[in-house]
Task: structure prediction
Amino acid sequence: MKMKKASLLILLTLFSYSAFCQKDNLLVPEPVKFIQKTGNFQLSTDTRIVIPDDNTEIKKVAGLFNDQLVALCGIRLESSSVKDETIVEFLLNKQPDNELGDEGYFLNISSKKITISANKPAGLLYGSETLLQMISPVLADSIVNIACAEITDYPRFGWRGLMLDVSRHFFTKDEVKRFIDQMVKYKYNVFHWHLTDNNGWRVEIKSYPKLTSVGAWRAKRTGLYTGYETAEPNESKTDGGFYTQDDIREVVQYAADRFVTIVPEVDVPGHSSALLAAYPEYSCLGTPTYVYEGGRITDIGDNELCVGNEKVYEMLDKVFGEIASLFPGEYIHMGGDEASRRYWAECPKCQKLMKEEGIEDVSALQSYFSSRVDKIIRSKNKKMIGWDEIIEGGLVPDATVMSWRGIEGGITAASTGHHAVMSPTTYCYLDYLQGEKNIERVSFGALRAKRVFEFEPVPEGVDPSFILGGQGNVWTEFIPNYRRVEYMTWPRGLALSEVLWSPNVNRDWDEFVPRMEAQFPRFDQAEVNYAPSIYDPAIEMISGDNGKKQIVFTLEIKGLDVYYTFDHTFPDNFSLKYQNEPIEIPKGASEIWAITYRDGKPLGRLLVITLDELEKRM
Ligand code: ACM
Ligand code: ZN
Result:
């Protein structure tokens, strides 16, 4: 078992007071009601799983529980129909319990028996995930003690989503399954799969094979996405990949077994260079284009899907038809963000359509496009959801809005009777950096875990019945491999899971931190990468009262000490200690080096920053 130092420390701390039995509520997301009881349930290979009447759906849930239990502590439980031994019993309520709804559960751990009861199998799965979090992640010789407790739990929101962008960088179906595994542990239930963009079309469409034979491949580049150079003429396109329809069905089933609904996104009319590389005849200019390697992140496209071409709608009808047949969920995401509308203003076909339809400007033209796509999606018996640009120029009557440019899109949607999913950059963009830029490197913005935790999906004055929930987005321009996907998702995904599942009462970051940290040894054991950025301070240069530049450290969590040097030597707990007051910069200093300690042990990473850089950030 690989173990990061930080996690080992936490694990040892846990054990020192718990003797392998996790007391206290260290659960994420926080359950609605948690009552600690005295005593332990002793789980061992003699413990049996009991499920009602050989119900196959519950058998699946129990199987998932068992597989995770083995991975967690090395114990696999046999099934039994006999109830007089120590058992973990899965029960479906004969009379639905209104408080629990479709996803809630009641978990009772007594010294004799563990019972998970729910109205629906999804609740049983969530109950079993909670139970697994009450078991220490240590391979056990024989017996695992689980502290007795009574837990009643159900979610605040029905849409608890994470989005993964597989276009900017491609992730295999096994990596996607791994992503879903991790989501389920923290009770997420929507996987938004961003399948198409300028940098690759990732889903096989039988009617349009070039979407993947051409659109899924680009010239191979390594390094920093912003600096990727455009392909040479005739350079081979070896970088990319796509999912066959069989792959998609396999992942859809995998997710469904875990009560995760997949919302597929085909992003049109913007972000469609991969489509246009395959079929340039559907663009305004009609000229050949290519699948972008990267790099082009400010200029969104150098051509655009032609919304004045009737053949585009015929094509989209077939594409969305195949998408609808692959994904059983009720929503299809049609993107709608960041279209380069300027091409429509100069395109004869688009201009002709605007005249014929009396469309005044290009934002109304996008609204026309959205309503055509909405009709297509509805004809496949699905509902349309799109990024908040679909509001501009008029929102299609039954569309759902995914609010990303702040919360205003969601507020507008709700105030006009539309549903919204809240996913603002300011709280939910998990591609943004979560710690010091010098080591976290490049992205579009910054978003600390603490801020994610402060997210409130229902804006003041908005009717909460229109807010379906919220979602974290993992855009992958700057995420070239799956380890980095995990690093960016966790632990901020823990903070967001709590926002989306738990009641918004007495929410307290300091109280959350130990529960968040209790997940780190679980990540280590499951070999899931996560960011230790919460242990690093933010470093800032300020102008002091005397006009002199000073340095300030800000910590995201309590209980850390910052040690620093200005003399280009490694700081440790014998170096200068930050006293929570601005530091004067000594004469001749050009760099500051800093590290955090907790209880006398190094915890954070070494930060090395030039004073010039800090000054530039002022
Ligand atoms: C988006 O971030 N362009 C939806
Ligand atoms: Zn056009």
User: Anything to note?
Assistant: The first strand starts at residue 33 and ends at 43. The chain has a mean pLDDT of 93. The CA atoms of residues 156 and 455 lie 14 Å apart.
